C-alpha cells in the first residue's frame, strides 16, 4: 500500500487532508511540531532529515504547515520577515530538497502557498512573498525531479471554517470549505499532474 | 530635479538603465558592491541603511542586482539555496523595507525578478523561487506603501547581449535587447503604475 506523509496533519487543513485520504487505499502518516506520528521542526534541516530517516519508505509528501509573519509594511522589519522565510518558505523548500532523496519512484510532493499572493491584504506582504516563492519553486523544481516524482503547490483561499475569525482581514473574500482545499491536495498528491500551482479560490 | 538611485548600476542591465535615464531630467546616482557612487552590500541590512543615510533625498530606487545560485535540483542543498535567498530575495526586499522610510513622496521602487519563474530551466529552481517571491512581494507591498510611493518588479528575458554565453542554458529562449529591458525599468520607475510585474519577454 502507498504511504502518504502529511506534515502539519493536526491543523485545520491537515486534519481535513487526513480525513479525505481515508477514502483512498493509502496509509497515512502524520508529522507536526508537537503532535502527529512524528515530530518535525520545519525550520531545521537536521530535523527534516531525521523525519525522512525515521519515516522510511514514503510515496506522497503533503505539507499543510507553515508560519508567516503579518505586519503593516511600515512596521515590517527585515528580522520579522525572516519568520516567514524560515517558517513557510525554506521549511517547505527544504522538505523537497532533502526529501527528493527519500521519496519512492512515482511519488509526489504537494506544498501550500496561499491566495494573498494574488489578492493582497493589509499586513500580508511577507506572506505574499513566501507564497509566490513556493509557487515558482514548485513549478521550476518539478521538471528536475527524478524517477517520476511529481511536485505541485496548492494555493487556498480563506477557509469557511476561519472566515468569522478573519472577517476584518480578508475583506470581501469568498471563503471556501476546507474540505474542498483538502480535495485539491489529494488531486495533486495522488493524481498525474506536475509543475502546477492549483488554486482553490 | 528628481533623483534616481540605481543599485547594481555597473552591470549589463544597470549600465543600460543608467544610459537610458540620461534621456530624462533626472539626476542619476549609482551604487554597487565595489563600483558606483556608493558601495552597498545588499546582504547586509546595516549596509542598506547606511546607503540610504548617505544618499539622502531620493525619488526613484531601481535595483538591477542580485545573485542567485544555479545547481541541478538533486545537488541543490539548503545551504546553497541561501545564496539566492540572501543575494537576490532579501537584498531587494530589505531595500524596500528600509528604503520606504527614506524615499520622497511620490517616489518609486523597481525590483528585478526574471523569466525563469515562468519558463524554468535546468538548474534554475533556486532562481525561480526568488523571482516568484520578488514578483509577489512587489505586488502585495505596493498597496501598503505610504505617501504615493509606488513599487513594481520587472521580469526580464535573457538579454541579447548574453545570449551567446548562455545558449546552452536558455534553450530556445528569444532573447531581448537589454535596452528594451532598461526601458521598462524607466516605465516602472518614472511612470504611474504600481503593484505591477512587468514582463519583458
Automatic annotation (TrEMBL), chains A, B:
Keyword field contains Repeat: no
UniProt-listed Gene3D superfamilies: NAD(P)-binding Rossmann-like Domain
InterPro entries in alphabetical order: NAD(P)-bd_dom_sf (IPR036291), SDR_DHRS6-like (IPR051122), SDR_fam (IPR002347)
GO MF: oxidoreductase activity
Stretches assigned to coiled coil: none
Keyword entries, A-Z: Oxidoreductase
Any matching Pfam family: adh_short_C2
Family (UniProt): Belongs to the short-chain dehydrogenases/reductases (SDR) family.
NCBIfam families: PRK07578.1 (NF005754)
UniProt name for this protein: NAD(P)-dependent dehydrogenase (Short-subunit alcohol dehydrogenase family)
Species of provenance: Paenibacillus amylolyticus
